[in-house]
Amino acid sequence: MRVAVIGAGIAGLTCAFNLQQAGVAVQVFERQPRVGGRMGTRVRDGLAFDLGANFLIRSYSTICELAARLGIRLNNLSPVRHSVLRDGTTFPMNYTAPRDLRTLGGLNWQARARLAWLALKARFRPRPLDFFDLSKVPARYNCEDAYSYAARKVGSDFANYIVDGFNSCMMFSRARDMSAATFAALFGMMAGTNRDFTVQHAEGEMQAIPSALAERLTVHTSTPVASLEPTRQGWRVHSRLGEMEFDRVVLASTAGAGRRLLKEPGEHLELLRLTQYASTINVSFRVPKGTLGDVHCFYVPFLENPVIAEFTNEALKEIECEGDSLVNVGLHEKAARALLHSSDETIFHSVRQQLLSLHPGLAAVAAQVRPHDLQRWPEAIPKYSGRHVERVKHFLEHGQGRQGLYLCGDYLNAPWTEGASRTGQRVAELLIDGRFRVEAENSTL
Ligand SMILES: Cc1cc2nc3c(=O)[nH]c(=O)nc-3n(C[C@H](O)[C@H](O)[C@H](O)COP(=O)(O)OP(=O)(O)OC[C@H]3O[C@@H](n4cnc5c(N)ncnc54)[C@H](O)[C@@H]3O)c2cc1C
């Protein structure tokens, strides 16, 4: 069986690696000159800038296992402080143990009591929800959005500052764009007894994991697939390498890039067409190393600032050069969309102004807050609304693998690098199972 994987992000690379380990002939096509997609790093002036994903957590079982197999060390950043901005003041945003509820986001005692009850229920849930496999979440949770659920269960302060702040920071969109299921699964993961939310970072930067996978595979970089054509036996893949024939195709690009390749209407195209993303721009500034102290991540709820969604202190990863480190800023989707086609100078200028207004420590060293690098992400993070989660569930049951075409990536009900990697692993398992089934059927003929 010959398989083409289109896209060398973590989903496509995990899929290809698992297929190759099982003896399948697999080739990966990547549009960009480097692999990794939204899990890449660019080093400039001695400072490494994570273009998209910039941290891992210890309960990323698939990624941790891959890193171990590839010999890549994952360094713990925890314990680190997270803060949420509210009325110009910072409040603690950590939730790793029940005692953290005493200070979380400056909530009043009634909200904290209701939240404690919610955390207790999540902690002792007989069957925990799986944040990295939202297709298994009971359908009733997909009828409500995360904001309404949080406001109903705990109160509007919690919904506005904690849940909306968290969603802005981690997904760049608003809590109304996320299903209650997604929030409940994530909250369950944080409150669960055996879940570990320790923040980690790959030694050699984020890029280390995709690069190590690619070294073990046949990857054609700078080779965008121009179109896909179904044939009687499989698929014809068109790229600068010419026309190549494969038995199966795994489309591991974002949904928007994928839908430009498919011409035939069907379940695949329908799902790709309806998938929505939040956009962001990741903007990086060089600052004196100690400026942000020991806080790792600042969550900026939309009510507080409609431009900046979050900023992270890269000094804690020990990324530094000549006494400087980086502050990476992510934008709320609406502000990002408005700036996506602006010049670098315009983006640096307007984001810098907002950033200085949010943090007095940065304002105090304003002359030393200098533009470093930026990356535009029109398709940054999928929106896991209830409708999307249900649509994907239906696709996975009825459309996945039809005509020898498989989809993988974080939009398949599996958020972040861990979710994306798991979708790649699942597609590889389906293909390997299918191959064994065909071989077994042939041997009994
Ligand atoms: C700013 C930002 C911050 C994030 N922070 C974190 C974080 O801290 N932790 C975390 O776990 N996750 C984080 N994420 C999410 C995480 O990066 C993604 O969920 C994950 O990397 C998605 O992987 P993927 O393989 O599904 O897609 P991608 O990484 O997007 O890979 C798709 C690949 O397909 C290629 N491609 C597209 N079209 C074609 C074509 N026609 N031919 C060939 N190749 C093609 C693309 O170039 C790309 O390399 C963040 C994302 C962003 C944008």
Keywords, separated by commas or semicolons:
FAD/NAD(P)-binding domain; Guanine Nucleotide Dissociation Inhibitor, domain 1; Polyamine Oxidase, Chain A, domain 2; 3 domains; 5-stranded parallel sheet; globular; binds flavin-adenine dinucleotide
Describe, in plain words, how this protein is organized in 3D.
The protein is of the alpha/beta class. It folds into 3 domains: 171 residues, FAD/NAD(P)-binding domain (3-Layer(bba) Sandwich); 98 residues, Guanine Nucleotide Dissociation Inhibitor, domain 1; 106 residues, Polyamine Oxidase, Chain A, domain 2, CATH 3.90.660. It contains 14 helices and 20 strands. The strands form 5 sheets. It has a 7-stranded mixed β-sheet with strand order 8-7-16-17-18-15-19. It has a 5-stranded parallel β-sheet with strand order 10-2-1-14-20, covered by helices on one side. A hairpin with a 2-residue loop joins strand 12 and strand 13. Helix 4 runs antiparallel to helix 5 and helix 9 runs antiparallel to helix 13. The two termini are 19 Å apart. Flavin-adenine dinucleotide binds next to helix 1, strand 15, strand 19 and helix 14.
